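Hello K.,

You asked for the raw outputs rather than the summary table, so here they are, unedited. I folded two proteins back to back in the same session to keep the settings identical. This is the first:
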Amino acid sequence: MYYLSPKSEVSTVYSGMTLHYYGFEFSNSNDIWGKKYYKAVCAEGDCGYYVTSLYSAGIENENGFYAPYKGFYANGQLKEEGEILVESFGLPGKPFPDRHNVLNGKYYKPDGTLGSVVSQGTGTQTLWYPNGQMQWELELLDGQRVRCKQFSESGKLISKVEYIDGKEVYLETEKDSSESGND
């Protein structure tokens, strides 16, 4: 007798992500006879984790579908929530939620206050380190990335990228010597 119970595996696309599924694994299909993925959990160490439903929120495009997700600081406090694109890689399609491809999102500071909003693919996605320093700032316009800045935990700008015709153009890249131990 076979039992249909939840299982999990590490993503082949990103090792920090665990994909949860159920299925008999009789075939390579994305259904109960193969592996029917239903949730992805991505660990981010001291910065927390995020969880994505792998069921469509009803909004699909040629690259995948948008699904609800929530991110949390390591202490369990809400960090972010919204709908992000879930793409499919490999055969059968392994789901990959791209939390920087946002349809709608709200981003909260470590003190719980609302820090930024993306609505219908337009706005700014801002993420913070648990110490309150800005970690990431991504500007979006009509679902397209415009500009992105990354910061070290000490607040130093690490990289600045602009997107021209959908391609990344690096404007700045610096290493924070205090982060690497090379003072």
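The second followed immediately with the same parameters:
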Amino acid sequence: MMERLNGRYRPMAMVASRARHKVAPALVAGAVILVSSGCGEEEDTPSATEETAYSEELPAIGEPVEFFLYTHCGVESLRLGGQWWHAVEPLYGDGGPGTAPKGWGDPYEKGELTRESEQRVTFESEGTDVSFVPAPDDRPMTECR
């Protein structure tokens, strides 16, 4: 069977062979992109254990711990030691309240949480600090979904 390739008729097997040589590098490049893009996502996606770490217990004062902060709706509140804490100065993305801070992961940002005192904790990531204090009504600032 004959097929047209580059303006000339060639046997079908030759057309298929040349097509494979053009597709193979594209498939390899696509696989490399998929593998490399998946690596960054895993680092900023907490396991079930990491997601709830410290939600019911407090870390020791002065000892930084790895922490995954929920950022999808902005940085407003976190659950720590069985209670809600509010950001002293909430942090949002360019879209304002309801958006993750620019340059931070969405829905989570991995960073360090340090309990400064009984009444203050600080989350640090990407060179930015956000301080939290216990919520007066033990509720998140807003209900974001």
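Residues 69 and 109 are 5 Å apart (CA to CA).

Happy to rerun anything if the numbers look odd on your end.

Regards,
P.
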